Amino acid sequence: MFRLYGLTGGIGTGKSTVARMMRDLGVPVIDADLLARQVVQPGQPAHAEIVAAWPDVVEQTGNIDRKKLAERIFADPAGRARLEAITHPRIRALAFAQADAFKQHGFRLAFLEAALLVETGLYSRLDGLVLVAASEEQQLARVMARQACSRSEVIARLRAQLPLEEKRKVASEIIDNSGDQAATQRQVEALIRRLLDHPTVSK
Questions:
Q1: What is the distance between the alpha carbons of residues 52 and 27, in angstroms, rounded to a whole number?
Q2: Are the C-beta atoms of 10 and 161 separated by less than 8 Å?
Q3: Among 84, 86, 124, 164, which is least packed, fewest CB within 10 Å?
């Protein structure tokens, strides 16, 4: 039986690190951010719709300046909703197509890594949800170190996200990434063993 679980977290919690550990264990992880880049490539329907809505975010190469687009919609709920209506259905379609391909290749388990699984409600269409959690101070420190942002900038980004505590309410599994990588690795290995041995334990 094939199962597709969600993998989510907040900025700086380390879900990409957990995804890498899962891949190293031979479990496929579908990267929603990579799919998001694919659907806005020149020639794709989403690209044309974005160009029509925000013509100033197009680079000379024809590519979408994703950072500039993100800045445009950060404080614009209507704009963000419009962008999500353009991209999210296409990202979902690609994600489920990839999952089906893994199933056809004989995999019993795969994960969909995405930041907005809870916010979009997509988690409810999956077989379970793994939340990667860390303290807010750790989130701040990691993002500031990684992206050279100021503390106030990172706090603003954190406040713009759904709080981790809200995501905990719907998560079926928690990976506590507040310790060292060895501790996280042990949790990931135990989780994969459990899901493969008892695929219905979470949901």
A1: 39
A2: yes
A3: 124
Global pTM? 0.89
Largest CA distance in the chain: 52
pLDDT tens digits, residue range 153-172?
888 888 878 889 999 999 99
Provide the token pair at 187.
């949790």
Question: 28: which 2 tokens?
Answer: 């496929």
Closest CA to 88 of 40, 158, 129, 29: 40
In CATH, what class is 1-28+108-203? alpha beta
The one-letter code for the residue type at 34 is L
> Tokens 């890594």 correspond to what residue?
113
Dihedral sign for Cα atoms in the order 109, 18, 173, 85: negative
The residue extents of the domains of the chain are 1-28+108-203, 32-106
Residue indicated by tokens 């909703």: 81
CATH class for the domain made up of 32-106? alpha beta
Q: Which two tokens stand for residue 179?
A: 């310790």
pLDDT at 146 over 90: no
23 vs 1: CA distance, rounded Å? 19
